[in-house]
Structure formats: C-alpha cells, structure tokens
Amino acid sequence: MSDLGSLPTASLDSIILTKVPATSGKGGAQLKEACLELESLFVYYLLKEMRATIPKSGFISGGKAEEIYTSMLDLQLARELSFRGGIGLSPLLIEQLGRKPEDMEGQNIKK
Q: CA nearest 16: which of 80, 94, 77?
C-alpha cells in the first residue's frame, strides 16, 4: 500500500474541466451568472448527499455547530468549483438557454 505522501497533488486552478462559453450583452452576462449559480447549487447538493453517506463514528461530535460548519463549507466549495470551471453543467445550460427562437425553428420538438 502506498504512502499518502506519495500521492500526486493538484491545485484547484489546474482542475478546470470546461470553459464557460462567452456571452454577449447584459442578458448574456445575467444568463451566465444564473447558470453558474444553478451549477453551484447542483454541486452543493451532490456534496451534501455524499457527506450524508459517510457513517458518523460518534467519537468526536460537534453537534449542531459541526452541521452548520460543514453545510457552509460545502456551499463555499460548490461555489468555488462552479465558478472555476465546474463539472460542465453551466456551459450546456448557457448553450441551450442562450439560443434565439429563430435558431430553433428547424428542430423537431416532440410534445
């Protein structure tokens, strides 16, 4: 079994998975911000649910203060991840929501 000190490390800046497409105008900036916030919220719930699967040992219990701290930690981590490249959700949302109606005329949309 390898030593933990021998594992490679990477900074958060080097883990950018995707680039958010450029948007134009005030509406584009608002759309980009909204999509980044939505991705941040999604990542927050992923972190929250993953943390809930870890069994608590009861050895050291921080009580309600620990719950508040970990919730705030997950929220900030989700925001940082989302605004530094995220998991690729916001570029997809920007692409889909940023289309103009005339761009979508040729598509068959089943109801």
A: 80
Neighbours of 5 (CB within 10 A): 6
Dist. CA 52–CA 101, nearest whole Å: 42
91: its two tokens:
């570029």
Q: How many domains does the chain have?
A: 1
- Position 66 in a domain: yes
DSSP 56: P
At 61-94, the pLDDT tens digits run: 778 888 899 999 999 999 999 999 889 999 999 9
pLDDT for 86-109, tens place per residue? 899 999 999 999 887 766 566 665
pTM: 0.65
Q: Token pair of 51, please? A: 């943390």
